[in-house]
């Protein structure tokens, strides 16, 4: 089954770790415009070219799914280093005993606390002390305080294909105000979950999965859902 425009856009946004509001700002449109595309309310848009340019993807792929997401002949990523140069660079290994570089931060990785992309997980303690290193400049760019960041593993397929089973997500615990269409780490009935959230009149909340065919929308009272933080990055091992 081919992906929809909404699904392709969500995949491209997840790869570069950009939010709807940031993408809207760079494209020069309102967040509502991006939200309509991301949620499938708009299936065609005149902003395909600027969106593709910001995300560094092929507009043909974004519009119709034709070919590859990125042009393999485009040998220059945004930092000006060619692909061949990047591939040829030696990889520097590190472990927890290595000092942090100036532009690095260590983020706690709660390996034993699994966020459910499904019906819910209840593990709520982690004593492993694992850390992940992340770019301080990237956090600064998006206004995320390093002290508010944490990483968690994901279990389940309700957020596939954007966040498949086995992914690692990074959460900004300082971002607890709901922006419609954002992905959030929530606690609900003592279960930890990651879901798309949409506010509704009367203090209601739509809890939505990307895999909506298998996991239909849920409606909850807003005061029964605790917002732990907003997901701002995800990564997956493709093995």
Structure overview:
The protein has 239 residues and is an alpha+beta fold. The protein has seven helices and ten strands. The chain has helices at residues 5-16, 20-27, 31-38, 48-55, 59-64, 83-88, 136-141; strands at 104-109, 115-116, 130-135, 149-155, 168-172, 183-188, 191-200, 204-208, 218-221, 225-235. The strands form two sheets. Strands 2-4-5-10-6-7-8-9 form an eight-stranded mixed sheet. A two-stranded antiparallel ribbon has the order 1-3. The model is unreliable at 75-89 (pLDDT under 50).
Number of contiguous helices: 7
Q: Outline, from the CA principal axes?
A: globular
Give the N-to-C terminal Cα separation. Answer: 22 Å
Beta content: 25-35%
Extended strand count? 10
Q: Gyration radius, to the nearest Å?
A: 18 Å
Q: Low-confidence parts lasting 5 or more residues at pLDDT below 50?
A: 75-89
Query: Which series of helices and strands comes N to C?
Result: HHHHHHEEEHEEEEEEE
Query: What does the oligomeric state look like here?
Result: single chain
The percent range for helix content is 10-25%
List the helices and strands and how they pair.
Elements: H1 5-16, H2 20-27, H3 31-38, H4 48-55, H5 59-64, H6 83-88, E1 104-109, E2 115-116, E3 130-135, H7 136-141, E4 149-155, E5 168-172, E6 183-188, E7 191-200, E8 204-208, E9 218-221, E10 225-235
Helix pairs in contact: 2-3
Notable features of this structure?
239 residues, alpha+beta, eight-stranded mixed sheet, two-stranded antiparallel ribbon, 10 strands, 23% helix, 26% strand
């Amino acid at each position: 089954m081919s992906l929809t425009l909404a699904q392709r856009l969500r995949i491209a946004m997840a790869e570069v770790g950009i939010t709807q509001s940031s993408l809207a700002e760079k494209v020069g449109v309102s967040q509502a415009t991006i939200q309509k595309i991301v949620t499938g309310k708009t299936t065609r848009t005149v902003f395909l070219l600027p969106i593709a340019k910001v995300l560094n993807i092929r507009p043909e792929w974004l519009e119709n799914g034709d070919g590859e997401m990125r042009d393999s002949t485009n040998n220059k990523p945004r930092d000006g280093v060619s692909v061949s140069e990047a591939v040829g660079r030696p990889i520097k290994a590190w472990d927890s005993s290595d000092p942090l570089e100036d532009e690095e931060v260590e983020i706690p990785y709660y390996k034993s606390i699994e966020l459910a992309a499904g019906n819910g997980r209840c593990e709520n303690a982690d004593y492993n002390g694992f850390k992940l290193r992340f770019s301080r400049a990237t956090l600064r760019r998006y206004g995320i305080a390093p002290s508010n960041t944490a990483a968690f593993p994901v279990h389940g397929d309700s957020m596939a294909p954007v966040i498949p089973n086995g992914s690692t997500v990074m959460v900004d615990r300082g971002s607890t105000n709901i922006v419609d269409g954002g992905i959030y780490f929530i606690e609900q009935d003592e279960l930890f979950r990651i879901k798309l959230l949409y506010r509704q009149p009367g203090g209601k909340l739509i809890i939505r999965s990307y895999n909506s065919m298998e996991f239909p929308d849920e409606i909850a009272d807003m005061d029964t859902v605790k917002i732990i933080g907003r997901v701002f990055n995800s990564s997956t091992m493709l093995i």
